[in-house]
């Protein structure tokens, strides 16, 4: 968790906009990677099918090690890599939606000319709590 302080709601909204833009850029990069991996996955599938018709068994297997909250995948197939990237894309989309929702809620307050000390508790880059202290 990270604690950030802002001098106004407008400053917080600007921060949220910057975070959304950062997530969108990252999302675009992941979507490019996903497309590349999907093409590679199709090629691998065609090659496996061809080898199977020739009587050749599996040529390689990846190793997956469960690390409680994450996984270590050694020598992943394109299909496994694609799945990991798809999960990242879903998470990025969710983060963008949550930030946009928070921004929409805060936007009317940003237009008010009030002095406030704003403390934001960020969990994984997303505001979990926003504390607004008026006149501080």
SSE blueprint and pairings:
Layout (H helix, E strand, L loop, with lengths): L1 E5 L2 H45 L9 E4 L4 E4 L3 H33 L5 E8 L2 E9 L2
Antiparallel strand pairs: 1-4, 2-3, 4-5
Helix pairs in contact: 1-2
Notes on the protein architecture:
- The chain is an alpha+beta fold.
- The chain has one domain (2-134).
- Helix content is 57%, strand content 22%.
- It contains two helices and five strands.
- It has helices spanning 9-53, 78-110, and strands at residues 2-6, 63-66, 71-74, 116-123, 126-134.
- The strands form two sheets. The chain has a three-stranded antiparallel beta sheet. The chain has a two-stranded antiparallel ribbon with strand order 2-3.
Which key features would you list for this structure?
136 residues; alpha+beta; three-stranded antiparallel sheet; two-stranded antiparallel ribbon; 22% strand
């Amino acid at each position: 968790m990270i604690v950030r302080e802002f001098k106004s709601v407008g400053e917080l909204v600007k921060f949220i906009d910057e975070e959304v833009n950062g997530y969108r850029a990252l999302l675009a990069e992941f979507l490019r990677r996903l497309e590349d991996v999907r093409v590679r996955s199709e090629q691998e599938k065609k090659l496996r099918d061809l080898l199977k018709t020739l009587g050749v068994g599996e040529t390689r297997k990846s190793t997956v090690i469960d690390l409680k909250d994450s996984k270590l995948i050694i020598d992943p197939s394109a299909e496994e890599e694609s799945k990991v990237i798809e999960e990242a894309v879903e998470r990025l989309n969710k983060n963008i939606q949550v930030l946009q929702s928070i921004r929409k809620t805060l936007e009317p307050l940003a237009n008010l000319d009030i002095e406030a000390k704003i403390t934001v508790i960020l969990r994984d880059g997303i505001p979990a709590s926003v504390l607004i202290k008026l006149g501080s």
